[in-house]
Amino acid sequence: MSERAVAAVPGAGTAARGQPLMSIGEVLAQLRVEFPDTTISKLRFLESEGLVRPQRTPAGYRKYSWDDVARLRYVLTAQRDQYLPLRVIREQLAQADREAAAGPERPRPSLVAVGPDGEVPGRKTPVESVETRLGRAELVSRSGIDEGLLAELERMGLVVSRPPGWYDTDALVIAQAVAGLAAYGLEPRHLRGFRTAADREVGLFAQLLAPLARQNDPAAQARAAEAARELAGLSQQLHAALVRVGLRGTLGR
User: Fold this and answer.
1) For residues 60 and 43, what is the distance between their CA atoms, to the nearest angstrom?
2) Dihedral over alpha carbons 156, 208, 246, 122 (to 10 degrees)
């Protein structure tokens, strides 16, 4: 079976001689196959943060090389799979740029083999876009919960449908997590603490994001969305680590 390869840490974003150049719309179409929530505003934001440097035509239009696309794919993968903040990703890319500039004798960036469908060994397939629309029956079927449990989760405010009655990917993720917890004997009443803790975090993070979210500047809006993503990822890491530490006594470690 043939395999493709993607750069783990792509080098500088400048186009190699002879590389075809793409418009921002063409780049967006390439990236949305794996990162369906990517927008033109997101790409412009990453450029403003110095993570990619597309060329410009005399008229000011952005033109991206395949190296730029690889660089963007690396950034988006690091955010999605590792919850890395942009500061850390920028440092990694800067290090790759320095190594690439050191000379041809330096080894090329390492490659990660992926299958013909884009899967990477050891990594879960990315979840669908938050804009995914699921009907009630499909949510029940795909999550593994039954109608009664779904009704209970809705009553508790853990799962919320969107008008006119469809569910997005977050609802599916929550329902699947509840199904997994239920397999260990947790009941809906045990989940109230999760809802309370999440609400507290939402209130805290909303205060941090409000100054940016109130601005009409698209760049500020993009920074707010990026900060929200990073806060959610850091919160998940902190919660998981605290649970592991708390269970060490039970496990005798």
Assistant:
1) 16
2) 90
Give CA–CA dist 93/79, Å, rounded.
13
Spell out the domain ranges in the chain: 4-114, 136-251
Which CATH number is 4-114 given?
1.10.1660.10
Q: Is 151 exposed, middle or buried (0-12, 13-18, 19+ CB in 10 A)?
A: middle
Confirm whether 4-114 and 136-251 share one CATH topology: yes
Fold of 136-251: Multidrug-efflux Transporter Regulator; Chain: A; Domain 2 (1.10.1660)
Q: Is 95 exposed, middle or buried (0-12, 13-18, 19+ CB in 10 A)?
A: exposed
Omega prior to 109 cis, within 30 of 0 = no
pLDDT in tens, 102-121: 765 544 444 333 333 444 43
Q: Which helix (H) or strand (E) holds 23?
A: none
Cβ atoms of residues 144 and 150 within 8 Å: no
Q: Is the pTM of this model over 0.85?
A: no
pLDDT tens for 153-167 read 999 889 988 888 899
Which residues face 113 on adjacent strands?
Answer: 5
Angstrom CA distances, 133 to 28, 38, 166, 179, 226, stand at: 22, 17, 6, 20, 23
Helix (H, G, I), strand (E, B) or coil at 7: strand
